[in-house]
């Protein structure tokens, strides 16, 4: 009976534990109450006018506002003395601010703030997104984000939050798994910390329209997976390191509207995957248009406008047949426009060569670029006949910009919309006299008569001058 009693007791414990295991396994996991409370607090900080608890009283992972996203995880759990794998659920995305009708994230107010619980309560968070939330009341990001925050974060996106103030070093905290760092139009200040180089999984760094300063960190050269680097419209200065040329996967590089100076790095020629290059409105100077551009066959758009590069337009266009846009406005160009640009750039949609010191004629090859929708040659010293047909000028319209070239002229009858109306009419005919005297006479006879007539005209001119 003792053995039987012990066996019965053991069986009872075993089956009870087994039933508990199956019961727990079959239960739908719910969000932890503390984590749910933190979500309510964050929502209240973003928009206190909405009764979040009344609208979403149940488990937020079963029914939640759009933009609050959960995911399931399998974690080791102890029930009594038994260790088993249990399914849990946690917040993995928090998206705030209206984007579109198809993604109506929780709306922000002009006085939206950020709850401190955001940085302490969501250790499974993968994406944090704020769009046009911090626009009124100043919102300061903690100078030192808790070490527990951001260990799982892959995307940090803050767009158009001008009242959000904090140092870049404080904002990125101790992230180790970050893939996208997008901070556009915020009050982020300071320099780029060297620890950025430790975020080796980064694929995008977009920091445009903030108040960042200093130079480009050499640590960027360590980000071998980087595809987008946008530092535009900040207060950066100094030379751009040659190390950026090692980012072989880079598709977009935008350093525009800063104070970068010196020489454009020759190593950029190694960026064979680069499609978009914008270095406009900096202080690069006196080294001419970089010849390495001719090696970058993947380029689709390039802008160097607003620098003091000087020099002539080089003959580098043969390998750039896929390029769509070229912006070389106000960079001190001299000499003529090479006809090879029109010959090779068959897909060109935009060409900006305005506010330079270019001379000579507009290449006739430009007149047959069928995709060209905007061409700006204003304020140069170009001369001669405009080579565009009436069909071309009608298609491009006001985006054909030629004013500020007093020696350019147009043929009578050409559509004069846009800046063409400010150009004078050409006096000389387009064709030589020989073409006009061809009434069944052989070509040799035509040439002879033409020469004779031209000689006769020359004699008359001499006699008139002596008279």
From TrEMBL:
Positions of transmembrane segments: 447-464
Name of the top EC class for this enzyme: transferase
Signal peptide coordinates: 1-27
Keyword Lyase applies: no
Domain of life of the native organism: Eukaryota
InterPro entries in UniProt: Leu-rich_rpt, Leu-rich_rpt_typical-subtyp, LRR_dom_sf, Ser_Thr_Kinases_DiverseReg
UniProt-recorded Gene Ontology molecular function terms: ATP binding; protein serine/threonine kinase activity
Keywords: ATP-binding, Kinase, Leucine-rich repeat, Membrane, Nucleotide-binding, Repeat, Serine/threonine-protein kinase, Signal, Transferase, Transmembrane, Transmembrane helix
Catalysed transformations (reactions): L-seryl-[protein] + ATP = O-phospho-L-seryl-[protein] + ADP + H(+); L-threonyl-[protein] + ATP = O-phospho-L-threonyl-[protein] + ADP + H(+)
Protein name per Swiss-Prot or TrEMBL: non-specific serine/threonine protein kinase
Highest classification ranks of the organism: Eukaryota, Viridiplantae, Streptophyta, Embryophyta, Tracheophyta
């Amino acid at each position: 009976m003792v053995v039987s009693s012990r066996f019965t007791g053991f069986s009872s414990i075993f089956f009870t534990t087994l039933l508990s295991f199956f019961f727990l396994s079959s239960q739908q996991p719910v969000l932890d109450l503390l984590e749910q409370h933190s979500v309510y607090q964050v929502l209240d900080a973003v928009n206190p006018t909405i009764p979040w608890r009344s609208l979403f009283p149940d488990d937020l992972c079963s029914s939640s506002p759009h933009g609050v996203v959960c995911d399931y995880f399998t974690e080791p759990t102890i029930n009594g003395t038994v260790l088993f794998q249990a399914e849990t659920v946690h917040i993995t995305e928090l998206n705030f601010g209206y984007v579109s009708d198809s993604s109506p994230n929780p709306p922000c107010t002009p006085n939206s703030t950020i709850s401190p619980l955001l940085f302490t309560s969501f250790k499974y968070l993968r994406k944090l997104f704020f769009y046009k939330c911090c626009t009124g009341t100043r919102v300061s990001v903690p100078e030192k984000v808790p070490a527990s925050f951001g260990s799982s974060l892959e995307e940090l996106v803050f767009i158009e939050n001008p009242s959000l103030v904090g140092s870049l070093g404080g904002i990125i905290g101790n992230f180790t798994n970050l893939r996208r760092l997008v901070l556009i139009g915020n009050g982020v200040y300071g320099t780029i910390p060297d620890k950025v180089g430790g975020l080796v999984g980064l694929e995008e760094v977009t920091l445009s329209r903030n108040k960042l300063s200093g130079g480009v960190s050499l640590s960027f050269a360590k980000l071998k997976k980087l595809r987008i680097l946008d530092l535009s419209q900040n207060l950066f200065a100094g030379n751009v390191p040659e190390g950026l040329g090692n980012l072989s996967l880079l598709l977009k590089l935008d350093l525009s509207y800063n104070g970068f100076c010196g020489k454009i790095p020759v190593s950029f020629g190694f960026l064979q995957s680069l499609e978009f290059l914008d270095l406009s409105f900096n202080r690069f100077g006196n080294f001419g248009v970089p010849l390495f551009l001719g090696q970058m066959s993947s380029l689709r758009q390039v802008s160097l406008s607003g620098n003091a590069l000087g020099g002539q337009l080089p003959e580098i266009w043969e390998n750039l047949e896929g390029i769509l846009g070229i912006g070389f406005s106000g960079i001190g160009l001299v000499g003529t426009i090479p006809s090879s640009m029109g010959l090779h750039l068959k897909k060109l949609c935009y060409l900006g060569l305005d506010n330079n010191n270019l001379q000579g004629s507009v290449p006739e090859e430009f007149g047959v670029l069928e995709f060209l929708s905007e061409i700006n040659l204003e304020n140069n010293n170009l001369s001669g006949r405009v080579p565009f047909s009436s069909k071309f000028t009608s298609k491009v319209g006001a985006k054909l910009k030629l004013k500020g070239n007093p020696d350019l002229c147009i043929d009578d009858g050409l559509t004069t919309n846009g800046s063409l109306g400010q150009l004078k009419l050409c006096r000389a005919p387009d064709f030589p006299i020989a073409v006009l005297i061809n009434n069944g006479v052989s070509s040799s006879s035509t040439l002879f008569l033409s020469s004779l007539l031209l000689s006769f005209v020359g004699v008359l001119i001499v006699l008139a001058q002596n008279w």
